[in-house]
Amino acid sequence: MTMGIHGIWRTSTYSAQEGECVEVAPLSHATGVRDSKVPARGHMNIPAAAWRDFVRTLKQAR
């Protein structure tokens, strides 16, 4: 985990050893998503409701 300007960034435990993955950080009303290889390029803010729906859909697909 790394501390960013807006929150604590974490990487999935399913990530590849090469670091080819995304990082997420809980923000006040959204979830930040960024590329772990180039975090300096910035991040996208996904609205909280959309992130919950996304995660729920992934869990249902298992």
Structure at a glance:
The chain is an alpha+beta fold and about 60 residues long. The chain is built from 1 helix and 5 strands; from the N terminus they run βββββα.
Give your account of this protein's structure:
The structure is a single chain. With 62 residues, the protein is of the alpha+beta class. It has one domain. 21% of the residues lie in helices and 34% in strands. It has one helix spanning 48-60; strands at 2-3, 8-11, 22-26, 30-35, 44-47. The chain has a 5-stranded antiparallel β-sheet. A hairpin with a 4-residue loop joins strand 1 (2-3) and strand 2 (8-11). The protein is flat, with a radius of gyration of 12 Å. The N and C termini lie far apart (26 Å). The model has no long low-confidence stretch (mean pLDDT 84).
- Characterize the overall form: flat
* Amount of beta strand: 25-35%
Biggest beta-sheet profile = 5 strands, antiparallel
Biggest sheet, spatial arrangement of strands: 1-2-3-4-5
Helix content range:
10-25%
Write the element-wise H/E pattern from the N-terminal end onward: EEEEEH
Give a count of the beta strands, DSSP E runs of length 2 or more: 5
Q: How would you summarize the topology of this molecule?
A:
Blueprint: E1 2-3, E2 8-11, E3 22-26, E4 30-35, E5 44-47, H1 48-60
Antiparallel strand pairs: 1-2, 2-3, 3-4, 4-5
